[in-house]
Design brief:
The complex is a heterodimer. Chain A is mainly alpha-helical. Chain A is built from 15 helices and two strands. Chain A folds into three domains: 10-77, no CATH class; 81-109, no CATH class; 117-345, MetI-like (MetI-like fold, Orthogonal Bundle). Chain A has helices at 10-15, 19-32, 39-49, 51-77, 111-118, 120-153, 159-171, 174-185, 191-198, 214-238, 243-250, 255-283, 287-292, 300-309, 314-345; strands spanning 93-97, 102-106. Chain A has a two-stranded antiparallel sheet. In chain A, strand 1 (93-97) and strand 2 form a beta hairpin. Chain A starts with 9 loop residues before the first helix and ends with a helix. The two termini of chain B are 40 Å apart. Classes of the chains: A mainly alpha, B mainly alpha.
Chain lengths: 347, 273
Amino acid sequence: MSANDSPDRPAAALITHDKGDFLESLDAGLRRRGLGFAAPVIVWFFSLFSGRGAVIAVPYVFLLAFFLIPFFIVLKISFAETALAIPPYTGLIEMVDDGFEYYLTLKLNLANYLTIFTEDTYVRAYLNSAKIAAISTALCLAIGFPMAYAMARASESIRPTLLMLVILPFWTSFLIRVYAWIVILKTEGGLLNTFLISIGLISPDNPLRILNTEWAMYIGIVYSYLPFMVLPLYANLERMDLTLLEAAADLGCRPIKAFWVVTVPLAIPGIIAGCFLVFIPAVGEYVIPELMSGDNVRVIGRKLFTDFASERNWPLAAAVSVVLLMILIIPIMLFQRQQAKLQEAGR
Amino acid sequence: MTKGLSKINLVSLTFGFAFLYIPILILVFFSFNDSRLVNVWGGFSFRWYGELFQNEDLLGAAWISLLLAAAASTLSVVLGTVAGFVMARFTSFRGRTLFSGMIYAPLVMPEVITGLSLLLLFVAIDWGRGLGTMIIAHTSFCMSYVAVVVQSRLVSFDRSIEEAAQDLGATPLKTFFVITLPVIAPALVSGWLLSFTLSLDNVVITSFTSGPGWDTLPVKIFSAVKLGVKPEINALSTIMILVVAIGVVAASLVQKRAMVERQRAERMAAAEN
């Protein structure tokens, strides 16, 4: 704060509302009185009551309690056994008192992880989910990039309208959008088949079977996640310095080549952000496979949900989600790093 | 740009928007179909809207959903604004990396993981599942969206007006409420609306954290759709799409007008100097 505040006067610093100065002078004062050993703790304690500390603490504590700590509980329960009880799992730590001895036992049940890594259905479900998410991400990019590019190059007056048109479906319920595709793709009495039969392209005895196949799921996922791809790409491409393209053209670069050597490399942060926003949640997708892909498409999100809800095997469901998180932790951390960097860059 | 390229642009825009909008338009169109069969046009009617408004079950679920979404998005705006403020202004404090991780991770976290982990937390601390647990669960992912929106608004914020207020003797708290909050208010409004729609749409996290008797509208729609296509759902979807469309268009018009007015004020201020 201002220079005339003496760092040796905590009260003065407090009156001028500067908690940083207050804590610094408190620290200095304690050390001078030979209480240096206790200073860090006392300063930390007071920092909790400073405006800054309290401001940080409110969302921090909420996120710790309802985002981070739950993962540790999942981890803990993944080592438990199922039990016919409420809640339906055993504790890890048990008190043993057989009259002679009195001790605590810690029992980690590894059977759930063994099941996941040895049973074919689980391994295949993980691989299948990753494959589906990767293909969906590629399809979103293939459709989304040209869209975002065209939006960014459209005249400035219609850009807000185009942007709103991309955001609007994102605001409408995704469940409803999935439902719309079910109405269209149904084999018996679906609109696509009705239309194709009416124009004589296919015979009524042999309708297209799309719903309840993997194809329907791809359509559903690409459709639902497309705005997540378009928006970061658009934000990136719109900021691009177009004089770079002019420079490339002046140097004799043809537009197609300029697109690949100038535009695409500059768009990479947007491409990465879009791909993460599609890929990571798509790996754990439950609703779209459940509604659109029929019973024979096994994905890990469905497996987790049935283990939890129908089988009532909570420890196994917990272990499934721990392994899923282990697979996704690297993409998630890369995504966080990139977002943090993008926000810093906007400063 | 060459002419050929803009033709490609036109094609990709047309294709993209057709892909995004044709299913929605079809749904709206067939909600006015008198026939129970989706693929047979039985004439224009409001029949399914009538049946929808007699369906006590769905109306009750809709009421729960609206209540939940309103509560969760309000809590999300309060916590998310503080979190966004912390992210934008406090560039170094112990545990900041963890903090920013906990802000960004929920944006991409698969819902089955979030849902299961919250359920196990509520069971572990013996918190009976109901509206309260659903509000907490929805807030835990909605507040991240608010935080990101508020953060990006704050990094482009002209801090000199805050400094001016403090030089004139306002405390940091007063500066925040009198200066900062009004300036970032549009971000708060869009954060609230975003949270509201995210909450109103959620199936997976809701089914993990809701208790018996607290089925929300998306959960009801989900189980109905699993059993098959129903014309009432078309009518319900149309109403929801209409409300959202009106809301988004109105919000963007209001924003546009505010921007035009601000530009005019700036021009006038510039002319006076």
